[in-house]
Amino acid sequence: MKAVVTSGFIESIPEKIRAKLHLQAGMVLDFDESTPFLKATASPESSGQVDEFKEWLAASVGVAKGRFTTDELMRESRGED
Q: What span, in angstroms and rounded, lies between the C-alpha atoms of 60 and 23?
C-alpha cells in the first residue's frame, strides 16, 4: 500500500489502514523519532479531541441551509458582486 507526501508534507492515510487502526478525523498522532521507520501511535489526548470534533461537526451541520447556494457563497467569499 502506498501514499504520496505532498509538497506541504501532508500525507493521506489509506482507507484500509484508517479502518484497521480505528483512526478518526481530529485524532492526534504521536510519532516515534527513535525508530528508523515511520511509527505513529494515537496520543492519549486524542479521545477528548475526537469527541469535541464530533460535537462541533454535529452542531455545524445545516447551519447555512437555505441561506445561500454554493455559487452565491463562493461569490461572497471572493468579494465578487
A: 22
